[in-house]
Amino acid sequence: MDKRLGWSRSSVLVCAALASACGGSHRVGDVPAIDAAVLSDAAATDARTSDPDGGTTAACETGRLCLEVNRLGSGAVQQGILAVVWFQVDDDGPDPDPVVAFELPTPSDPGWAREDILLDALAPPPDAVRWCPRDCDDEAICPCTGNPQVALAVVGVLEDTDSDGTLGTAEITSGRATGMAMVVVANANDRYVPAPIPWSEVFADGVIAGTQPYRVIEAGVTDDLGVAPPGSTFVLSVCTDDMPVCDPPTPDVI
Question: What's the whole-model pTM score?
Fold first, then answer.
C-alpha cells in the first residue's frame, strides 16, 4: 500500500493522478442502505477463508475482525506484534505518520489459529489520515473540507525490534513484516453507495459508514475492495522460524 509503510510492497494511488482528483466534494446525498443485491454478490464470492485442509472456517460474529492464521512454513510463528494501522492514501506533500489503531503481541501458543478483534477496540483514525477533499496537500494544516472522508488500514504482524511490546513509527515505516492479512479495514464518515470518483476506483461496492473490514477482490493491476458478507473471516499469513526469507501475501489495493 502506501510507500510510507515499508512493510507493504503495494503501489500508491495518488489523487492527483486521477481526473477531478480530490479537488472537491463528491458527496452522495441521502443514499439508501446497502441493498440486498450488494451483500448477495459478496456472499456469492464468499470472503470466508478456507483452511489448508480444504474446510471452511467458523463464521465471525458481528462487530469483529476475524483472522484465520495461515502458517507459511512448518516451524513456530515468528514473534512480532499484530497491528491494525491507519495510513494516509494520498502521498502528495508532507504526510502524517501512520497511526496504530490496535496492537497485540503475537501469542507464543503453537496452537494459535485465529484472532478475533473487536472493531470497537480500534482507535478511530485522526483527520490527518483520512482520504478526503482538502485545500492543500499538507494534512497537518489542511483538514477535510468535504466528503467522502475515508481512512484505510492494513493488518499485519511487524517485528518488535526494541522488544518493548508496542510499535513505534520507525518499526511501522521501515520495519520487517512477518505477517500480512488479506483484508483492508476502512472507516467512513457516512455511507456512499455507489462511491464517487476517485473512491469508486477502490471501493467496488461502495462504502459503509463506520469501521468495517473489506474483502480484497483481484481486479487486474491492483485489487478492489468489496463489502464483506456477514460471518466473513480473512487469512492472516504468517512467517515461521524455519523460513530465512519470507514475503507474506499483501493486498495490492491502493
Answer: 0.78
